[in-house]
Amino acid sequence: MEGNFRKNIHPGLLVLVVQKQDQRTGRLTEGIVKNILTKSPQHPHGIKVRLEGGEVGRVKEIIEEEE
Question: Which Pfam families match (predicted)?
Fold first, then answer.
C-alpha cells in the first residue's frame, strides 16, 4: 500500500519512510508511526510522519499490520 494518502496512515502503523538526507539515495527507514505531520489529505511524495524513534520522513510504503 502506498503512503500518499493521509487516510491510509495512523499512529502505530509499521511503515517505510525516506528521510530528507536519504532522498537522493532512496534509502528507506522502517519504523512505527508516532505522529502524522502532513495536514493535507494527500501528498505526491508521501505523507510526512514522525516515527517512534524520532525520525521524520515521508511514507513510501505501508507494511501490512500483523493482526
Answer: DUF2196 (PF09962)
